[in-house]
Amino acid sequence: MKRIVLGSLLMLAFGAPLAASQAVDDEMARYREQAAKTERTYQEGLVKERTRTSNSLVVAAKRAAKSEPASADALWKLVLQLDDMHAEAREYFAASGKLNAVLADVAKLNKAPLIGDGQVTVAKKSEPKIDMSGAKAIRVTASYDAGYTLSPLKAGTVLIFQYVSGTWSAANEGADPAKNQNPDDEKSDAGNRMQLFFLDGTNQSTVLATIPPGTLAKPFVYTLDRDVIGLSLRIANRGGLRRINFGNNNNGPNFLSSYTGDVKYLVRIVK
Prior knowledge:
This protein has 271 residues and is an alpha+beta fold. It has 4 helices and 12 strands, in the order H-H-H-H-E-E-E-E-E-E-E-E-E-E-E-E. Strand 1 (113-116) and strand 2 (119-122) form a beta hairpin. Helix 1 (2-64) packs antiparallel against helix 2, helix 2 crosses helix 3 and helix 2 packs across helix 4. The N and C termini lie far apart (92 Å). Residues 113-124 have low confidence and may be disordered.
């Protein structure tokens, strides 16, 4: 009889905390599930309302452009506050060379606090999806010179780059495919990134930007601050071997190059 009573007491002593712990875990799991569902509903509603308001502003801006340019500017600027990658709004300001200044103002405005009910809170803004509709697929070969050349472009033109596929290297004398790297992978060498550059009147190379890794998930956006003829793309490494004659001239020239591979990107040009 004493043993039975002792066993019952031990079950009560240790069983209750275990049951309570399980109940807490279950409640926390329920909370996390409901919180995630609420957040999804909030984000979906936010995107829906932002799109609705943005579309209304676009209609008003286009109407105002005919007779009230100042009002049109203000309306298009509001569109960019809602979505700083809005293609039509960017095209509108790019046409007058104002895009960079307007985007700087929008960035400041979007960082400003919202005042309400005596409290200060920071506006929550979901990451906008960059529009790549109408983008052109290009293949850029690994080369000391230009791997691909774009058409002449005016100041204010917006260029959007997104990695698709391919690997390359500027230091692969044996042309071993295993030594080529993906320029969109942050673990790849900096020399295997892609550069945006042009040649000036003296044939000197001016690098405008190095396209960072991660563009497959988030395309890279660059706005030209000058008119450019011969805007080109190439692998970043300038120290590779190229066009070195090592053969018998009687048999024709032979060239050694450590530049191997090619990469494919989507490029959208917003003029």
